[in-house]
Amino acid sequence: MAMGSAHAATLNVQNGGDVTSLDPQQMSGDWENRVAGDIFEGLVTEDAKAHPIPGMAESWTVSDDGLVYTFKLRDGVKWSDGEPVKASDFVFAFQRLMDPKRAAKYAYLQYPIKNAQAINKGKLDDMSQLGVKALDDKTLQITLENPTPFYLGALTHYTAYPLPEHVVKAKGDAWVQVGNIVTNGPYKPVEWVPGSYVLTEKNPNWYDTASLKIDGTKFFTLEDLPAGLRRYRAGEFDILTQFPGDQYKWLQENMPGQAHVTPFAGLYYYVLNSSKPPLDNANVRKALSMAVVREAIGPQILGTGELPAYSWVPPGIANYEGGPAYVEWKDMPQGQKIAEAKKLLEAEGYGPSKPLKLQLRYNTDENHKRVAVAIASMWKPLGVEVELVNSEVKVHYADLRAGEFQVGRAGWLADYDDPTNFLDLLKGGIEMNYGKWKNAEYDKLLDQAQTTLDLKARAGLLKQAETIALKDTAAIPIYYYVTKNVVSPKISGFEDNVKDIHRTRWLSKAE
Q1: What is the pLDDT of residues 67-105, one digit of tens each?
Q2: Measuring CA to CA, how many Å separate 286 from each of 279, 283, 291, 345?
Q3: Superfamily name and number for 266-481
Q4: Separation of first and last alpha carbons in the chain
Q5: Would you indicate the residue range of the signal peptide (predicted)?
Q6: For residues 188 and 181, what is the distance between their CA atoms, to the nearest angstrom?
Q7: Cross-strand pairs, 260
Q8: Which CATH superfamily does the domain covering 10-217+485-509 fall into?
Q9: What residues contact residue 331 under an 8 Å CB cut-off, 6+ apart?
Q10: Which end of the chain is more exposed for a tag (fewer CB within 10 A), N or C?
Q11: At what angle do helices 440-450 and 455-471 cross, to 10 degrees?
């Protein structure tokens, strides 16, 4: 029987949320990262298993004290308009990222760079003091505040992508419009219909275009998971980045090998708005957390076997000797947890005659809805009355950032392999600390860990911080993520990995 050969084709991906911008400094979601990592490339990029490999930089050296990284750019690297990619494009991008006026949501991921935090917080207004220098067109030097064991991994993140200085200066904020935008990754965007899709095609000026097996990718905005699965079955999508949990068994039986469910570095949690009553009360927060029957969620509510989370940092993260800290009541029998939770609420004056009324917000998605309904019913025996509110992902996260919520669903996927990537989410003054929980001792321990070279001692400080956050119920960890991709048998090169990053450059498609 003749086999269809792999040939250049368009990859159709159900991408989830709506891409808000093609500017890597204005992104915040995994659905945006999927597009960004195809059209831009940093000094360091990811291989098929999401490990760091050389990107725009062909090589680098690190000084003995771990503070100075010197990168040599590859020969002849170009933007999609044919202009050279220069070391100064990286300097321009990092300075723009740290400009307080631009309010880049994820600027803090590059705080390891010398003076980055001081500049971004408006405490230092001399941009030339940022530790990023172009020694010549092909040599970039990055100086860090302290030795940072995960820094090469952090350079794969979209906050570390270069920007085309010549275009941004000429076009201002309109530089990201299709027609103006130039990019330096394997692909370039050729169409972008907000609310609908982003379409890319090969970037002929990328250094390794000859190796690309896929012509371009169409990233479809679609948050309706049952509709996504129907369209996949009809052949409209090659990859689903999510599927309804209750269809896992069906997929295993009817489309064996196509559902990819593997553990990865991510946490599903509920944020508690601790800036105002009633959730400014640690006992109320603790009662709510204790009443969540985490063991039921992965196997029964979702059906995909997510693991119950009793820590803030998922197990298996690098540089965290002995694994994460856990809540002290983790192994208490469930009946005892409920009794204890009731007692805590009664002590704060809540009960059948004065129920605790809460609004629980989640972004539109069948799986989030299932979890919210289940948790609302777990809280019912405590006399908690829950109103469920859902909105699309952009609106949902805007509400969380604005503090317009009481309890809100959130999720975090590791940007780099280190516990600080999770612990920073609870730090004072960080935009992603939606619940505005604040603890001076916690912040101090994280700052101390930043300057601690001994990895074992550093892990000890981080664990002390995690213990404080768990004891005070800064938020409610619910489960550790598993990937939920569905991949057509036509696609090869798709490698499951703990970061769930799958760049188009490693894939091919057979007809």
Answers
A1: 999 999 999 999 999 999 999 999 999 999 999 999 898
A2: 10, 5, 9, 9
A3: Dipeptide-binding Protein; Domain 3 (3.10.105.10)
A4: 14
A5: none
A6: 9
A7: 485
A8: Dipeptide-binding Protein; Domain 1 (3.90.76.10)
A9: none
A10: N
A11: 160
Mean pLDDT of the region 1-11: 57
Measured CA to CA, the distance from residue 259 to residue 482 in angstroms comes to: 11
Contacts of 73 (CB under 8 A, 6+ apart): 56, 57, 58, 85, 86, 87, 137, 138, 139, 140
- The closest alpha carbon to 219, from 249, 246, 239, belongs to 239
Q: What is the DSSP string of 163-215?
A: --HHHHHHHGGGGGSTTT----SSEEEEEEETTTEEEEEE-TTSTTGGG----
Q: Classify residue 511 as exposed, middle or buried by CB count within 10 Å of its CB (0-12, 13-18, 19+).
A: exposed
* Rg of the chain, C-alpha, whole Å: 23
Lowest-pLDDT range of 7-11, 237-241, 352-356: 7-11
Looking at the chain, the domain(s) classified CATH 3.10.105.10 span 266-481
Reduced to 3 states, what is the DSSP secondary structure of residue 27? coil
The Cα–Cα gap between 461 and 496 comes to: 32
Taking CB atoms within 8 Å and a gap of at least 24, the contacts of 127-130 are: 127/95, 127/98, 127/99, 130/94, 130/95, 130/98
Q: Pick from 90, 59, 52: which is nearest to 75 by CA?
A: 59
Query: Hey, what are 378's tokens?
Result: 């777990």
Token pair of 384 as six digits = 């908690």
Q: Kindly state the tokens that stand for 334.
A: 């469930």
pLDDT at 352: 81
Q: Give yes or no for a contact between 90 and 130, defined as CB atoms under 8 angstroms apart.
A: no
Coil, helix or strand at residue 271: strand
Largest CA distance in the chain: 74
Q: In angstroms, rounded to a whole number, what is the distance separating the alpha carbons of residues 198 and 19?
A: 8
- Which residue shows structure tokens 């996949």? 232
- Which structure tokens are listed for 106? 């994820």
Residues 6+ apart with CB under 8 A from 182: 79, 80, 81, 83, 164, 167, 188
- How far apart (Å, rounded) are the C-alpha atoms in residues 200 and 189? 4
Which amino acid, residue 204? P
DSSP symbol at 41: -
Q: Is 239 exposed, middle or buried (0-12, 13-18, 19+ CB in 10 A)?
A: buried
Q: Where are the alpha helices (DSSP H) in 79-150?
A: 87-98, 116-120
Other beta carbons less than 10 A from residue 247's beta carbon: 20
Q: Which amino acid is at 17?
A: G
* Cα 50 to Cα 166: distance, rounded to the nearest angstrom: 31
Q: List, by residue range, all CATH 3.90.76.10 domains of the chain.
A: 10-217+485-509
User: Would you say 171 and 180 are in contact if contact means Cβ atoms under 8 Å apart?
Assistant: yes
The β-bridge partners of 338 are none
Spatial CA neighbour of 286 closest among 332, 361, 340, 346: 340
370-392: pLDDT as tens digits: 999 999 999 999 999 999 999 99
